[in-house]
Amino acid sequence: MSVAIVTDSTAYLPQSVVDAHHIHVVPLHVVIGGTEFSEGVDVTTSQVATALRAFRPVSTSRPSPQAFLEAYEKAAAGGADAVVSVHISADMSSTVESAHLAAKQSPVPVHVVDSRSLGMAMGYGVVSAALLAASGASAEEVAAQALSRAAGARVVFYVDTLEHLRRGGRIGSASAFLGSALAIKPILELVDGHIRPLEKVRTSTRALARLEEIAAAAATAATGAVDIAVHHLDSAARAEDLAERLRTRVPRAHEVSVVELGAVVGAHVGPGTLAVAVSPRPAPGSATDVPQEG
User: Fold this and answer.
1) d(C-alpha 152, C-alpha 240), whole Å
2) CA-CA distance, 255 to 247, in Å (whole number)?
3) Neighbour tally for 57: CB within 10 Å
4) Is the N or C terminus of the chain more exposed, i.e. has fewer CB atoms within 10 Å?
5) Residue range 205-224, pLDDT digits in tens
6) pLDDT confidence of 162, banded at 50, 70, 90?
């Protein structure tokens, strides 16, 4: 059986990885000042950051079922007997719903996976799924691998302000921080698809130090090697500095990469955001062992 992998643009996988593993990516959409753009196609993160700083209206929307159906049909035309479609947490976006609707019309069976995650925490799961699919595994095994690796990741992040999360309705229980938002710098985490408060500190310097400490501790606690992705929105220098410190503190990390957040997630977290995804790797030598992604 040939199993194709489909994901959405919020995995933020480098294009080289997408191409190497023949992954189909369906873009979400961002609307800036009434104009709709496709993430990763015709809008940049700097455009989103500029719009947010200027308080221009910015919103996001899921892909249409038709966009997913076209991806599934393309996979089938390319010889796939089944599709595993891995997506951003259903509690953050209704993207999974569009995938399910499209799956009903697909010419081949589609296993839709709600990753309960986003960003490279989901992306590493997508790559592991693609590697397992290439080894000849069944669609059920591939889907289980995608979910398992995504669920095993620890995601912590810092935002300069909670305002963008509040406006987008993605703040969840982290709204407990709003009462003192002017006096604190929040550290948040993603747990089972939800944003939850983790810590609040008084300065951005201390918040970034704690982000590093938490990520390093998560990597150290993992069994075996890990992959680490440092995400940012319009904060490349701080992200590179954090990544370099994590390379020093976690020498057994297989890779520590810097990946800019795209327009969709960036619209909800705002400029200055830093996030770290710590993803334990499958056992060395297994079919799902993920190679260096560059």
Assistant:
1) 24
2) 8
3) 11
4) C
5) 898 999 999 999 999 999 88
6) low
For residue 188, give the amino acid letter: L
- Alpha-carbon distances, residue 252 vs 92, 242, 265, 281 (angstroms): 32, 16, 29, 11
Structure tokens given for 220: 């150290």
Identify the burial level of 219 via C-beta atoms within 10 angstroms of its C-beta, where 0-12 means exposed, 13-18 middle and 19 or more buried: buried
What separation in angstroms does the CA of 163 have from each of 10, 47, 201, 272? 21, 18, 17, 13
Asked if residue 193 has pLDDT above 70, the reply is yes
Partners of residue 66 on adjacent β-strands: none
Q: Is 80 helix (H, G, I), strand (E, B) or coil?
A: coil
Q: How many residues does the chain have?
A: 294
What domains appear along the chain, each with residue ranges and CATH number? 3-151 (3.40.50.10170), 154-280 (3.30.1180.10)
Confidence (pLDDT) at 179? 47
Q: List CB contacts of 118: < 8 A, sequence separation 6 or more.
A: 10, 11, 88, 89, 92, 190, 265
Amino acid identity for residue 91 in this structure:
D
Whole-structure pTM value: 0.88
